[in-house]
Amino acid sequence: MPNFRIMRNKLVATFIVYAFFTTVVFSQHKRITDPVKSFISKIDFNPLVNQKIYKLNNDFNNDGLQDIALSCSDNWGNAGGKWLFYFQNKGGSFTYYDKIDLMSTSAYTILKENEKTPVLLVYNRYNCCSGILAYYSFAKKGFKLSNKKEVGNEKSTDVNQVSNLLNAAFAKGEKGVYYSADLRCLRNKKNDCWTKE
Q1: Is residue 32 within 8 Å of 174, Cβ to Cβ?
Q2: Is the per-residue pLDDT at 144 higher than 90?
Q3: Would you give the end-to-end CA distance of the chain in angstroms?
C-alpha cells in the first residue's frame, strides 16, 4: 500500500524546487523599464569616491532596436571592466541579457557574411601592444565565445601595429556610442548627467 504522506512530501518538495528555479529564471529575464535606474540601485554609493557609470548604446543583437550596456568604475582595472547588457523589447522595456568583460571603446557588432546573425567583437588588452580579440555569438542563455585571436606581442612596443590590426578587424563592425556619468548625479535624478566620450 503506498505511503501517501511520503508521496505528498515528495510532491511538495518538487513543487518548491520548481518554484524556486522558475522565480530565478523569471527574475533574470523580467522586463525592466529603466536599466540605468535598476543598475545603479544595486551599487553601494560612496560619497568619498568619484564613482563613474559607463554606458554603451548600440543595436547589439541586430533586431532594429537600440540596446544598452552598463558598467561602473568600481569594478574597473587598467583594461576595462565588467559590463551588463540589456536588450530592448518592442514595447520599449528592456530585458537583462548577460555580462562580459571588455574595454569601453572596444564593443563592435559585426554581422556574419550572408547571415543576419550578429557577432559581438571585443578587444581585451594585456598591455599597450598585445591582447585578445574575442568573438561572441548571442546564444539564448547569454554570450558564447565562438572564436578568439591573439593580437600583438607582449614584448613588443609597437602601438601602431596593434592599432592597424584592430582597425582591420573592426572595419565591418558598428561601434557603440559611449557615455559616462557621475553616480552622484544619476542618484539625484538629474537629466543632464551623461557626457559623450
Answers
A1: no
A2: yes
A3: 73
